[in-house]
Queue: 3 jobs
Job 1
Amino acid sequence: MESVALAHPVALADVLDRPDIWRGDALSCAAVRAVASGFHALDAELPGGGWPTGALTEILPAHEGIGELRLLGPALARVREPLAWIAPPHLPYAPALAAAGIDPTKLVIVRAASEKDALWAAEQALRSNACGAVLAWPRRARYAELRRLQIAAEGARALGFVFRPREAARESSPAPLRVAVETDRGGLALRLLKRRGGPLASPILLAPMPPAARHRQSHVDRPSLPAPAARDLPARLAHA
Amino acid sequence: MRGVCAGMAASAALALVPSLRIAARDPRSESEALAGMAAWAGQFTPRVAIEPPATLLLEISGSLKLFRGLEALAGALRWGAAEMGYGTLIAAAPTPRAASWLAAAGHEKLVTDPAQIEAALAALPVSVVAGARDELETLEGIGVATLGELRALPRDGVARRFRRTLLDDLDRALGLVADPRAFYAPPERFRAAIELPAEVSEAEALLFAARRLVVQLAGFLAARGSGVQRFALALAHRDREATRVEIGLSAAARDAERFTMLLRERLSALQLREPVRAVALEADDVTSLPGEEPELVFEKGRPPGQWQHLVERLRARLGAGAVHGVAVRAEHRPERACVLADPGAEQMHAYFGERPFWLLRHPKRLQEIGGVPHHEGPLELLAGPERIESGWWDGDDASRDYFVARASSEALVWIYRDRRGDGGWHLHGVFA
């Protein structure tokens, strides 16, 4: 056992971050349980030291694709229970999830025909208390609907993320944590519009999180044929 | 209110408030309700005593640590009682009699120090101890309004002038004389009922009343360390036989939230043939459910659910195809490296290099202006090319050069240039 521990040194903080670790002193601070975000600058400003479980967190990106999912990647990789993705705008891409350390088998993706179905599914996922995280992309959600989700999240062990357009920041929201995501010099600038204990005036700057994107290698599994046209020809004829 | 007070004739009260609704007092329902609350309170301490008509005494010194102190315990009691639809006055004292007097007088104090009892009781009106009406009048007649003033009178004089038990009660309250109590033993089965204030014809509207009973049931089960696998909600009508709504669970449980959710679903689908006057909750097969310690229940919130159950529920409403998982396939063409699968399906592990979190279902053709691909403005190529050539064996041949590109919105996207055909640019993914 000792040799195993030496071969794989595990930081105490990492162990304590695990949501399934029950700490004796949790009695005194049971109100907020959190999953470390993986970004120290962010964890330092989040009540409980990470993304809160049992509560709704609003993510308000300035534009789709600027890093709103990469921001959650480390936390989602830490969660052991299933991850419900409700009405995502595109197909979550399994190879990217696996590369980020998120086991694709844990995903439960729900496609909803209507806004009502999407909100219902998100509420069910939170209420079931079977998920480690629930991510929802409502096209538009009113205060009362978000309030239902917040109530469903309370007492559950799941992280609850709701992705909304940046303009929604102007509306009031029952979510205890609201994070506006913007870009700044290639990295992200997070504004905690709302959190337990008051908003944060200055943005939190996170270093750029580019996809490693240094691949020069190619995936070529075709036998190198000097004259592809020779093979293409019959195929074209067949379709003609 | 508006001059209506206890002891007034109904006709006099109606003269003051014509809209007054008068209901006959039902002592049997009252004592049933109090017994139900006693069974519910058993989750906080096994020592619960009933003091009719409207008081419960809980011996809590052994429970304080478990429930994180007196304030927290009082809060849990108040909250739970409110969930069942009861208002409460909660007081604590080192003796049961002092606690019940404080509560009866509306002094919601939590006294823990035996030395403080006398001071806390001194301000209470003598009505808490006075038995008969004439006794109270006599006490007031000699200028004694509070227990403090009563204590100040010479003991032998009080003993002679009033009944002996008056002093005994005071001594019990002060802890000078022992005050043993018979504790309530909860029944083997659970049954509780609520008479509705008005007839209800919408089944969903019954959930509010049913919820109160469910909370009571959950407390009853927690007190016994047990659970139920079946329970029934009986809806009483005026002329018809009661409608029974039977709820079955896959395994014994005692979770009020789960019970409520199941009832909500059943009631929402129920067509009532006649209005309902009363609802009753019954659970006969109470089985042992070695449960979590209360502190763990409090810590963890709800017990974990089964995700398979969640998938079943979602599919039942949205259709089987609307709920799925994703799986990795050993396939270089990006659109084929990810397939829809059943949630939780076993799958292979393969590493492809950097891939976007979002893949577009259909690649989107991009404009090229001056040799630069455009997507909501010009795209800046950050990395690439990653050449993917594959699929020659199945006729769906792909030969593409992939790039990571930054849009003017700072979004990172995954684009490719088709090496076949006209060599056009396509948007295939968003790194998000």
Job 2
Amino acid sequence: MSAVAIEGVWKFYGDYPALRDVRLEAEPGACLALIGRNGAGKTTLLRIVAGFSRPGRGKVKIFGTEPRETETRRRMGFIGHGISVYDELSAFENLTLFGKLYGLPDPRKSALEWLERTGLERVRNGLVREFSRGMRQRLAVARAFLHEPSLLLLDEPFTALDDRAIAVLQRLLREALAAGKTIVMSTHQLREALDLASHVALLSRGQVAFHGPRTPEMVADPGYVYARYGDSG
Amino acid sequence: MRDKLVYVLGAAAILLFVRNILAITGLPPEAQQGAIFKIIFFHVPMAMTAMLCSFVALVGSVMFLITRNFKYDAVAVAVTEVGLALLLGNLVTGSIWGRIIWGIWWTWDARLTSALVCWLLYAGYLMLRRAIEEPTQRATFAAVFSIFAFIDVPIVIFSIKWWRTQHPQPVFWGGGSFPPDWAQVFWLNVLAMILFGAVMCAVRLSQEEQQRELDSLRRMAHAF
Amino acid sequence: MNFPRQVLVIAIKDLRAEIRTKEAINASFAFALVVLLLFSFAFDPEAETTREISGGLLWIVFAFAGTLVLNRSFARELPNDCLDALIAAPISGAALFLGKALANYVLVMAMEVVSLPVFCIFNNVGGPVSQKIWPILMVMALGTWGLTVIGTIFSALTVNIRLREVMLPMLTYPILVPALMAAMLLTKGLVLGQPLTGDSLTWLKMLIGFDLIYTAVSLALVEIVLVG
């Protein structure tokens, strides 16, 4: 069974199709990099996979289940454009809050563990609003990994991060892959992403222009996929 | 085909209106209120058609949420707009009648108040639509709002009626009596008003569909 | 984790964030004070008629000031895209909605409970109000729930749209007309020293009915509002 199966998904804004008959699959343990220009539909597709919006037509299956099912949501972790943690709460409070919402057996213990793994244990009682940008981003990473999801959905994960946060995220992603977890990420930072990716999909104008395993050429020349399969530009 | 049907129905509505107006002017003035009483031939059918519109808006909204077909959203917005226009006509004709019979343009009578509240409710629907850019979200949120508004209509009407019956009213509704031989003209005018409303809805419906097509073409032009 | 605990976790999260900043509650109470002050210019507080209109005045203050709290409810989730994380979490939309409604309810009630004595002093109705304080609090509890439920669901509906601050009152007040009317009439009757019987009882039932109907409709539709 595929970890993610996107079965002929369409998304309409009015009559305009932002996604057109997208079919993609990711096997368990795979790391799929979604690439494509701005407006190609990467974020729209990821949000549908994450269950934040419904497809106009078609289906998404996560380990064979619907994205909006409670059990499915428990198995997914999402990092979007925002950090999705509360400025008015402390780092520890943020993580225990999400630990409770995910029904973890011991939210406080998990929170402490992930603060440590992201190098935030020293500031665990500090309010997020007082954090530096890099610390906030690491906390966002901790929030997404907290419930040990088997599927990670990352929307432009490296774009806003500073060097240390990128290092933390890359280490965690590698560990996750080694543990057999699945990753789907959209990205502009081809080098960081292709380094991790096992598969690559190119979205162009809401359609899948290319989907296949990552090849050595792609890492050597990140522009390769665009040049070979993409539209002009 | 649909265009032709709209023209035929529109012509039928106009002819029926002309026929009814001739018949209404031919009727003698009502015993107590005189000629102004005849405003009821338009005042009440407008209210009835507006109510019908709010019901169709509910059906369209629920159908949109089930099927996600934009046709139903277009139906909902078309009937809501036409219903609002008719309800406004109802308020204005009521106000004119009130000026002649009561000597005042407005009073917080139960029916006037409920009509005004309902008008504001559905005006909110249109305002909400204007504030949302993305068509799918606009249709979804508008449909949810329409359901809330429709449920409120009976509660508003009953509670305001209740409220008024507890208070002494400075003026009362009615006073005139409806001669039985006027009923036929009245119902024919109800029919004319519903026809008229349906034609207006059909026109707005095709405008709405063209608007959506234009909108998607514009998006496509920007995207490529 | 079961449903009531999820509701509680969300509510406590909102309340804790609010207590740290006090943005909504301070603004709401300050606004209530300003409106109360303006009333003293509009109406003669010494006159006997004040008692007649006290119910109406009080609920106008509550509805206006309450909107400031409700406007913040989902707007609070905007800055860091926190709403995404809540929608992604394995709790139902109903739990999320009820949790937020509960937090709003506590905040709006707090504003009202503080405003009530100020209102009584300014308008010289302390005596009659204290005699009927428990029934008045009950009417406040019921009326405020209606205000909160409608306000919370529409806060979710308007959170991402243009002119959010204006849209919320424009959309909610017409819908709230029956509930506000009931609350105003009941409060007025109590201030005038009438018992809760007969017509008043019917109004009370109407208010409870309004609360129940709109709680049910909101719970049924909240998932559509959140994920489309």
Job 3
Amino acid sequence: MMKRDECFRVLARHISDEAVVATYSSAVDWVAVAPRVLNYTSIGAMGLDSSHGLGLALGRPDRRVVVLQGDGSLLMNLGSLVTIAAVAPKNLVHLVAQNQTYEANGGHPIPAPNVDFAGLARAAGYAAVYDFSDLGVFEQQVAHVLEQDGPVFATLHVEPSKPLTYDYPSLYDPAKRKAFKAAWQQ
Amino acid sequence: MPAPDPSPGSPALSGSAIIAAIKASGIEYVLSVPDITTSSGLLAPIAQDKGFRLIRVCKEDECIGIASGLSYCDKRALILIQHTGFLDSINAIRGIAVEYKQPICMMVGLLQHEPEREPRASSRYGVRIMEPILDDMGIAHHLISAEADVAKIQPAIEKAYRESGPVTLLIGRSPA
């Protein structure tokens, strides 16, 4: 089992001009680790992170998009696995932090804590699928995960984190959306 | 009570004219879950039209997220769904289209609507509540039920992208 913020610190060392789509606890940890203009944290409805990511990937096939989704969020939009696999954007990397809880909503368990998200993504038809529970292994393979043709999926098995502060006005700041758009179109 | 339209697929509304208006609006992506009102007159020909990229999704709210992502790339998308899918996607529409003021353009088939009636007077509860919900959410909407209504499509989509806000085009009868 890994810690999400440690995973993201490892990931951040490999991120340059990618769009990173993140929400809720993943967004809090990610923006703390990597505050950058190309973070996309205005999702608008739980679960749609993966769908926003697909739109960004379709619209800029020359750029890479990384989605950092929580397990509760993906459960709300499981069909997006099938949609993404069918559309098959080569530039989309879909990482799901599985901490087995709705962390932003009180830490209650997800309906099936051990659901096999990697298995679901594989069955949906993602081009490559990974399952990481060891930080050293993730560190060793993350560059390849990010560089290969997608859609790529990886489950990151992480512990529930310590209580986080959710600064939603900052995450959903319209000025950040505007800045993201300007940067993403360059 | 008025009699139901004997020919729901009446040529009173031309699918090819609607598709031409969609194209003239600069729409490149069509995001859809099939809707029986627009199935043969719109979705089927759009699926064969190389001028569009059709993305078939599993559930309608996915469309809202995908269209939002595309809008950050200045790519125009039309969401082609049924009114039941609109109702199912209200939270996504609330957050992304209304609160974030994203240019989300929806073409919504009014399933089982009686074309000779105004949607607010429909005998179908789901149809009857559509326009009041759109009004309450502050979403611009236009009824496309006769050939003359097709002229509303391009200006509505252009306005949505120019002003960055949502618009809903309600398809009140099956286009032929």
